[in-house]
UniProtKB/TrEMBL annotation:
Coiled coil: none annotated. It comes from Paenibacillus vortex V453. This is Glycerol-3-phosphate responsive antiterminator, GlpP. GO terms for biological process: glycerol metabolic process; regulation of DNA-templated transcription. InterPro entries: Aldolase_TIM, GlpP. PANTHER family: GLYCEROL UPTAKE OPERON ANTITERMINATOR REGULATORY PROTEIN.
Length: 120
């Protein structure tokens, strides 16, 4: 839908920073999700990127899956996710199991020097 152009899924044809740049150039808007019940409204926006500001380990996978199915990129505020350790293992879980596209954080100790291979 939003990340598609001429029938092409931009999630698989454009990688990494190029994908983020593409999304922001097309629509320079980032929506944020504070509560899970706001998700339908967030998915209905024209934004290509969603910042998940607050959720927990039980909800994150479902939220990320719905965002991905809507053709949007998901970034999680690492410091505000409940139930996930604020360490390298927590980052790995979010990337490999939850399938996020990236993280937002005010504390870089868990991500400094970490090469990311986001599972999207």
């Amino acid at each position: 839908m939003l990340l598609r152009q001429r029938g092409e899924d931009m999630r698989t044809s454009v990688e990494g920073a190029q994908r983020i740049s593409y999304c922001l150039k097309r629509r320079p808007i980032i929506t944020s999700l504070m509560h899970a019940e706001e998700l339908p409204a967030v998915l209905a926006t024209e934004s290509n990127i969603v910042f998940i500001l607050k959720t927990d380990i039980f909800m994150i996978e479902s939220i990320v899956e719905q965002i991905s199915e809507a053709g949007k990129l998901s970034f999680v505020h690492f410091d505000l996710i409940e139930g996930i350790g604020k360490d390298k293992t927590g980052v790995r879980y979010l990337a490999e199991k939850a399938g996020i596209d990236g993280i937002v954080t005010t504390k870089n100790t868990a991500i400094v020097g970490r090469q990311k291979n986001w599972a999207c």
